[in-house]
Automatic annotation (TrEMBL):
One of its GO terms (molecular function) is hydrolase activity. Residues 1-17 form the signal peptide. Residues 245-464 form the Alpha-L-rhamnosidase six-hairpin glycosidase domain. It comes from the Eukaryota. One of its GO terms (biological process) is carbohydrate metabolic process. Pfam families: Bac_rhamnosid6H (PF17389). This is Glycoside hydrolase family 78 protein. Gene3D superfamilies: 1.50.10.10, Galactose-binding domain-like. The keyword S-adenosyl-L-methionine does not apply. Keywords: Hydrolase, Signal.
Amino acid sequence: MFVPLAILSLISFQAAAVAPPGPWDSFNFAPKNRTSRPTSIRTVSGDVQNAGALVNSSAGATILSGNGSFVVVDFGQEVGGRVLLTVADATSDSRLSLSFTESAEFISPVDSDDSCRTVATMNGDGVQSLPVPLQQGELMQTVAQQRGGFRFMTIVSNSDSPVSIADVGVQNTFMPHWDDLRAYTGYFFTHDPSFHDPDFLTRLWYAGAYTVQTNTIDVHQARQQPCPPHGWANNATGGPVEGPILVDGAKRDRNIWPGDMGISSHTELVALNDILPSKNALLVMFSTQDPVTGSLQYSGPPINAKGSDTYIAWSLIGTHNIWLYTGDLDFVKTVWTNYTRAIAFLEGQVDETGLMDVPQAFSNDWGRDGGQGHNSAANVMLYQALVTGAELASNLGDSELSNAYTANATALKNAINNLLWDEEAGMYRDNELTSLHPQDGNALAILFNVTQGQDQNKAISQGLTQFWTDIGPLSPELNDTIIPFVGGFEVQAHFIAGEGERALDLLHREVGSFSCTRKISD
C-alpha cells in the first residue's frame, strides 16, 4: 500500500506484537467477541410486541403474532456466521423464517439478497424457514445455513400463532483460527483535510482490514456449487487443506480466486500479520494443476473454474509474495515443481512476436472482454511472474533457471513496449489490433515495472484520467463499467508515477462516493 508522506500521521506494522492502543482503535470494525448482537430495531410491521427486547436482553422477550408480522434487526455493521436465538414460547402451529441483506435497500420479509446465484430480481435466495415444530430453547443455524455476510436480518411470523423470541445474535465464523478478532498487529491513523470526511483514509484502511477478516473462512465452510434448489449452503470444502483459506467474499463466492489475492493477501499481512490463509489458498490452487498441460485452474473448488492465463499468473505471483513476506523457502519448495510447470505452460504460448498469444480457452479474467491474443494485461502479468520466478529460483540455488527466467522477462518487456505502446496516446493498447487502451493493462504495467521510465508512468497516469467519472474510473475493456478491483491497481499506479494527489482524488471518487464504504456502521 502506497501512502503519501505528506498526509501520513502514523502507520506501523509490528511482526510479533499487537498494535498499541490509540485513537485508531475506534475505527476497528472487528467485533470484541465471537457473538454479535443487534444494535437497533430497523423496522416493525404487523403485530409485534416488545420489539426493543431484541436489543436489550434484560427487557424480556419479543412476541410476534399474526401471519406476516415481522421485525428487522440491525447489527450496525457487516457480520457473518451462524444465527442464534432463543424461542421463549411457541405453539405447535408457530412458524418463523429469516431473511438477510447487506443493504437496507433489499430488506424484505420474503427474500434475501442473493448469495448463491445471481438473479436480476434479487430473489434467488428467498428465506430460511426455521424447523417445525418450534422447540423452546436456543436455536442455532447449521454450518450450511450460516449467512456469510449481512447487516440486516428480518424475523417473520408465518402463522397466526404467537411466538416469543429473545437473545438474537450471530456467532461470527470468520477468522476461525483467531481468538481475538481485534488483535491487529498493524495500525493506521491519518487525517484527510481535503475531503469532507477527515477520517476517510483511516476508515478506508480499517474497512479493508475487516473485509479481509470476513473473507477468511474455514476450508470446510465454502459455498456449495451448484447452489441448492432453494436458498444457500455454506458447508462445501474449499480444497485439500485444513485450516483457514482466503476467499473472494464472505457472502459470495466464498471461493478461492487468486486474482483477488493480488490485493487481499497484502492487506492480510499489513493489517493482521497473518499469511496462513493465503498460503493455504495457494496450496489449493497448485493442487488443481492439470497433470498433462501444467495449467492451473481459474479458481479453487467447489466452483473449479478453468481457463485463465492471468489467474495462473496471479497464483505464481502470490507464491513470491508469500516468500517475500515470510522468507519461507520450504513453502516454495513444496510447490516448486507445480510452479515451474505452470510457468512453462504460460511461456509455451509466447509466439514469434515475443508476446504471449492467449488462446480463447484461457482468456478468462476478472470479467473483462477481449482477453485473448496478445493481451497487454496478460503479458504484463507473465512478465511479473518471470521476474519474481527468477528471484525464487535464485534463492533456491538454481542459477540456470533464474537466468533463463530473467532473459525471457527482458525479451518480453521489450516486446510489450515495441508492439503495444502507443506513443501518441501515451498508453499501452489492449493488443496490437485495437485502439482500446485498457485500465488493467496500463495500471499493471506501472505496478509491475514494464514501463521504461517515469515519463511513461506519468503519461499513463494522465491518460487513465480520461476514463474518470464522478463516482470512479470506467474500465473501457468491460463496456465502460466501474471495476473497483482494477481501480485498486490504478490507485497504486498513480502513486508509483509520483501522482499522489491524483491517487487520492481517485480514492475520493471511487470509494468516497459510496455511503456504504464511508463508514461500515453508517
